[in-house]
Design goal:
The complex is a heterotrimer of chains A (about 240), B (about 240) and C (about 45). Chain A has nine helices and no strands. Chain A has about 240 residues and is mainly alpha-helical. Chain A has one domain. Chain C has one domain. The chains are: A mainly alpha (about 240), B mainly alpha (about 240), C mainly alpha (about 45). At the A-C interface, helix 3, helix 4 and helix 8 of A face helix 1 of C.
Chain lengths: ~240, ~240, ~45
């Protein structure tokens, strides 16, 4: 029953599975993001407090979520590589890092553009914004540490350890609006019980979240294939694989 | 090679005695080169001078920015001395010998980090009143400032041990060390400066100090193992 | 956009840019990896 799990440690298997997943993820992402963006920009009613500026949520919230998800994935994958010495774990961690960093930048920029009309400022040193910025620095640290080693194995393991140390920041980002007085609004969707948004606003948001997740999966698979090739260059299965 | 885990775990020296021996060695080595101890302190003094000079603020404004300036300067000067935590021993092979000695790497890390804090962080705390006067911090805030700095520099030493362990083998690990440690130290900066700030304005700094203390306990318990794991990666 | 157009559209535009960059960067990375693998195989074939 667990063979599908064990096979994920095999580089050629991962290379093939990633290839088959990409078109599915991309199609799902295209539909979900397409619907979410159009419904969010056109069909959702304007917010009674924020007017049309609230529409930024349709890119800001999903990108913030992805940035945290990506870092967690990177830490977990690194841990798998470190603890069980499964090289594919390190491959996934290396592949996720630039993707996660780009979504962190997206979250920060869209948040900043949203803050200007809403709070009157492009930036505030409040807990959520600050911890998201720290997340970007953590990504930068991990991405700088890995290539600094001459032995790539050592680099992988050092980067994995660093990402695990930094993962404590992710719950801080998430709970910062709960623990501190923050300018940033609290949880709207992930509250237990009914979310405080009407369906006409909520559905496009959920669709964008799903779309971004599928897109993340697609791009991760694409990068992962590159990482696998870089790490397994000497292996015999590569010869047949790169011909296709 | 099984670093730190010998085949026969025959440790004739207990962990506590080993820690004492290692700390004694570290302190002896540090005091043999007193100029290396003084450099980060002088850096601390100079950096705290740079801000008032660069901003040419009046005394009242200086008081407002004093906590931040103090803590940023403490952070930066701690970073300077962190590089030598493991590097010297790694370069001449002592670190491998320590790892093979049968003592757990975590014990070794604790001993080295505590010794390092005694000569860098604790020294910084002792010098801070002088700097505080220069930054126009009122004497009433000194107690909070000293306690906060003591907890903060200790936490920073633990975080720095992780960073130093990760970068010990690298040729230009200095900048990378800062890049790794500073984001981790940001919450520390926020609460440390916040505590001093509250003390200056007269409100209770207890909450911030408790948070600093909890950060210190958190890192003290977990950092030795993380740093030991980092060293194991470097030494394997 | 109720007066907020100059904030909303740049956000969506930047989001498109980030998504596009991710796709482009991942493709390039994979292509470069394939090239390098091909070269390694070619070198080992010569020996």
């Amino acid at each position: 029953m667990w063979t599908w799990f064990y096979r994920l440690a095999s580089p050629p298997h991962v290379y093939r599975v990633a290839a088959t997943l990409i078109p599915w993820f991309l199609t799902a992402a295209a539909f979900a993001i397409g619907y979410g963006a159009i419904a969010g920009l056109v069909f959702a009613p304007p917010d009674y407090q924020q007017g049309d500026a609230f529409r930024i949520i349709y890119v800001h919230a999903p990108s913030g979520w992805i940035s945290m998800f990506a870092y967690s994935t990177m830490a977990v994958a690194g841990a798998i590589g470190l603890i069980w010495r499964i090289k594919m774990g390190h491959a996934v961690a290396a592949a996720v890092a630039p993707i996660g960093a780009s979504f962190t930048v997206l979250a920060l920029v869209t948040g900043s553009l949203w803050g200007r009309p809403m709070w009157g400022t492009y930036w505030a040193w409040d807990p959520r914004l600050t911890s998201e910025l720290i997340l970007l620095f953590l990504f930068a640290g991990v991405m700088s540490l890995r290539p600094a080693f001459e032995d790539s194995n050592r680099g992988d393991r050092a980067a994995a350890l660093l990402s695990i140390v930094g993962v404590v920041n992710v719950p801080i980002i998430h709970y910062s609006v709960l623990w501190w007085n923050s300018l940033h609004q609290g949880a709207t969707v992930a509250k237990l019980g009914k979310p405080s948004m009407p369906p006409s606003m909520l559905l496009p948001l959920l669709s964008m979240m799903l779309g971004f997740m599928c897109f993340f999966g697609a791009v991760l698979c694409m990068r992962l294939r590159g990482e696998v090739l870089n790490r397994e260059r000497q292996a015999t299965w590569v010869r047949e694989a790169i011909k296709s | 090679m099984n670093v730190g885990r010998p085949i026969e775990a025959e440790t004739s020296v207990g962990a506590r005695r080993a820690m004492m021996l290692i700390m004694h060695r570290e302190l002896c080595l540090s005091f043999r080169r007193p100029e290396q101890l003084l450099q980060p302190l002088v850096f601390f003094l100079i950096v705290t001078t740079l801000f008032p000079l660069g901003l040419s603020v009046q005394l009242s404004l200086l008081r407002d920015m004093a906590p931040g300036v103090l803590w940023v300067a403490a952070l930066l000067s701690s970073l300077l001395s962190l590089d030598s935590l493991f590097k010297n021993d790694a370069d001449d092979g002592t670190l491998e010998q320590l790892a093979l000695s049968g003592q757990s790497l975590a014990t070794i890390v604790i001993a080295k980090t505590l010794a390092h804090w005694l000569v860098s962080g604790a020294a910084l705390v002792l010098v801070s009143p002088v700097v505080a006067i220069g930054l126009n911090i009122p004497v009433s805030a000194f107690a909070t400032m000293l306690l906060g700095l003591a907890l903060g520099t200790l936490t920073l030493s633990w975080l720095g041990a992780i960073g130093a362990g990760l970068t010990v083998g690298l040729r230009r690990g200095n900048v990378l060390l800062s890049l790794i440690v500073l984001p981790l130290a940001m919450p520390l900066l926020i609460f440390g400066a916040g505590a001093t700030d509250r003390a200056i304005s007269g409100t209770s700094a207890a909450g911030a100090l408790y948070f600093l203390a909890s950060l210190c306990v958190f890192t003290s318990t977990l950092a030795p193992f993380a740093a030991a794991a980092a060293l194991r990666i470097a030494l394997d | 956009m109720g007066g907020y157009a100059r904030f909303v559209w740049p956000c969506f535009g930047f989001a498109c840019t980030v998504l596009a960059w991710n796709l482009w960067s991942a493709r390039r990375f994979h292509a470069a990896a394939r090239q390098r693998a091909g070269r390694t195989l070619a070198m080992s074939d010569e020996n």
